[in-house]
Amino acid sequence: MRWPWWGAVLLVVGCGPTPAVEYGEELFHDPKLSESQYNTFSCATCHASTATPSPGKVYAGLSLYNVASRPHWWGGYETRLLDAVNFCYTSFMRGLTPLAPEDPKSRALYEYLVSISPDVQAPAQPFTLVKDITDVPRGSAEWGADVYEATCQGCHGETHTGKGRPSELAPLLPEVVQEYGELFPGVAPGLVFIEKVRHGRFFGVGGNMPPYSREALSDQDLGALLAYLGL
Amino acid sequence: MKRHLLALLAPLALGACTGSEVPELDYSIGQPWPSGRELPPLGGGRIVVTNSMDDTLSLLDLDTLGSPDWGELARVPVGLNPVELEGPHHSTFSPRGDFYYVGLSYYVPGAGSGPHGNHGTGTADGYCLKLDAKDNRLVGSVRVDRNPGDLIISADGRTLFQTHFDVLKIIEVAKRGGTEREMNARLAILDADTMTRKAMVEVCPAPHAVRLSPDEKRAYVACISDEVAVVQLDAPNHPVTRVKMPNAGTALAPKHEPYALTLSPTDGALWVSSLKSRAVHYLDPESLEVVPERSIYGLRGAPMFGVVSADGRTLYLPYQAVDAVAVIDTATSAVKGEIHLSPAGCINVHQVELTPDGRHALAVCEGDHQGPGTLHVLDLKAGTVGSVVKTVPMGIFPDSVGILRRKQ
User: Fold this and answer.
1) How far apart are CA B201 and CA B164, in angstroms?
2) pLDDT digits (tens, 9 = 90+) for B232-275
3) CA–CA distance from B177 to each of B18, B122, B205, B257 (Å)?
4) Considering its fold, how many domains does chain A have in total?
5) Which residues span the domain enclosing A18?
6) So what's the pLDDT on residue A15?
7) Does residue A148 sit in the same domain as residue A98?
8) Using CA atoms, how far apart are residues B187 and B221, in angstroms rounded to an integer?
């Protein structure tokens, strides 16, 4: 009799409620937050969750440490945290319907964001978009290799092969610039590349890449990246 | 046997606890996603200013106007996208005070550039947004043509009218040698409840201001081509007739450049403000003819959007360059006096609106389009021309002022 009894206990006790914060953390790192079959982004693709930068990784978005304690987001253009999250959700994660406040996934994600926001109040973070695209001085290609690994590789995989990229929707680098000549005749490919990095999917560029603000990526790092890619 | 039973139950138990479905969750926070700072109730009304070059709305409380520390209640972002500037341009208000509507023009020069082109130059389609008055949240939107201009609503709050000040279209058609008719832009007639298009009516080149006749059977539209388009709203397909201004030019070479309209609430008389000639033509609503002797000439700057007092006797007409409000007797078209705004810091006055009690006027000034514009409160004491009693800084390039309030 003992074995069936323990089996029944396992069935009942093993399925107790999951702490929402734990599930929220799981969702934070999991593209399944979005219902789109084409999505490969999670929150963690673009955001750290720690107070200090992660060595060897440069995120497009700012760290979400203390995110729930900030007065506003996206440079002041989102004044509700859920709206800020949903902007990412629909713009980059291919989500079709914004997360509703009472949706279990949404609630769990909120609990996780609160858990990484230990301060009651935290200042808004700067978000400086490079609006006008101009060329940048090229830096060291060696340094640029590190920048590539820290910024691009997570989505685009290794150069030339794309090895390790989570989706084939992310183009190969730097091979994608071969298309630029036809699309932008007479424009230096490096300038098109800079626009893609700085404007992301916005300003008529398209796709679903997030923009790298000045806070996320300096012109010096961008110049080194361009040198590494031979642009 | 026992081991076999456990082997059967264990995957069942684990399977029930994992999988792709959301598990049963134990929440520790009762109210997720706080809504942020709440504004006080609407009360007697809320003044709304669209700041067209920084994608914000300035909100001011009408009830406390006149208090010593009166200023912005809040400045809230507006638009579909927190990354790009979208150029909010003009607003209009539900008569129940529950919603308000803002046009997105996508005309924000200097908004960004790159190999994909210069942005904010009015080449993208515009939108009309519907916002909840309680929390200023977006509740609906409808895409319209590019370069939305003016935006108004019917008295019952069910229909919106939005013009498209598409000067770019005139230039493009001219470049390829097209006809003036091809330069026509459309008047969008929108369902305010569902935020869908009811009709798109071709009206004229670069239509800007739109006003409804008191019976709402007509929409008057100011056209840059020295005309007022009259849209018959109660006829099938909304036929359009055009009334030329005197000595009219063409869309490419206008003599007047009609831009703004001011309508009398009592008799439906229409004043047509023109940028180039600085004339304010009087359009008789019965004959649909311009009456020169009732028109206003000689203003020292471009006349803009004015307002007529509730009794129909006084026209408050702002004009630029001098940046003043001309106070005009509507019976004689004589300028009774002027309220000068520039000493109070106004640059490029754009619109004047009256408070519901008619005791104050609100004048919004664009500023230099680089720094903040201004909102001025004018005290219209009986027996006097009026004076500026309060100035409040706004966002960048404010281009409309209106009052959200419950009328029904």
Assistant:
1) 11
2) 999 999 999 999 999 999 999 999 999 999 999 999 999 999 99
3) 67, 21, 15, 21
4) 2
5) 10-115
6) 67
7) no
8) 9
Q: How far is A195 from chain B (nearest CA, A)?
A: 6
A133 belongs to a structural domain = no
* B349-354 β-sheet, strand order: B349-354, B360-365, B372-379, B387-396
Look at strands B25-26 and A18-19 and give their pairing.
parallel
Residue the block writes with tokens 């959007």? B305
- How many Å apart are CA A26 and CA B237, to the nearest integer? 56
Q: Are residues A176 and A91 in the same domain?
A: no
Closest CA to A62 of A195, A202, A215: A215
Enumerate the residues of chain A whose CB falls inside 8 A of the CB of residue B12.
11
Question: Is residue A127 assigned to a domain?
Answer: no
**Residue B145 identity:** D
pLDDT at residue B15 greater than cutoff 50: no
pLDDT of residue B13: 46
Tell me the average pLDDT across B45-74.
Answer: 97
* Token output for A98: 């914004």
Q: Do B25 and A7 touch (CB under 8 A)?
A: no
Quote the Cα angle for A158-A161-A163, to 5°.
Answer: 55
B319-362 residue pLDDT tens: 999 999 999 999 999 999 999 999 999 999 999 999 999 999 99
Residues A182 and A103 in one domain: no
| A-chain residues near B2 (CB < 8 A) | 2-4
B6 pLDDT higher than 60: no
pLDDT of residue A14: 57
> Distance between CA atoms of B39 and B73, rounded to whole angstroms?
8
- Angle, to 10 degrees, between the axis of helix A219-228 and the axis of helix A141-151? 100
Residue A221 lies in a domain: yes
Give the per-residue pLDDT at A53: 82
The domain spanning residue A90 has which CATH number? 1.10.760
Token duo for residue A75: 């440079």
pLDDT at position B385 over 90: no
Task: Walk across the sheet containing B125-132 and list its strands.
Answer: B88-93, B99-104, B125-132, B138-146
A105 lies in the same domain as A157: no
Give Cα separations from A211 to A45, B4, B248 (angstroms). Answer: 13, 55, 49
**B positions 310-349 inside 8 Å of A (CB):** none
State the smallest CA–CA distance between residue B113 and chain A in angstroms. Answer: 5
On whether residue A48 sits in a domain, the answer given is: yes
State the pLDDT at residue B10. Answer: 46
State whether A175 and A219 are in the same domain: yes
**Pick the residue with more confidence: A203 or B385?**
A203
Q: Do A192 and B115 touch (CB under 8 A)?
A: yes
**B84 in contact with A, Cβ within 8 Å:** yes
On chain A, the residues whose CB falls within 8 A of the CB of B116 are 195, 199, 203-205
Q: List average pLDDT for each run of 10 residues in chain A, which is 231 residues long.
A: 50 74 98 94 96 91 96 95 97 96 97 98 96 97 97 97 94 95 93 97 94 96 98 96
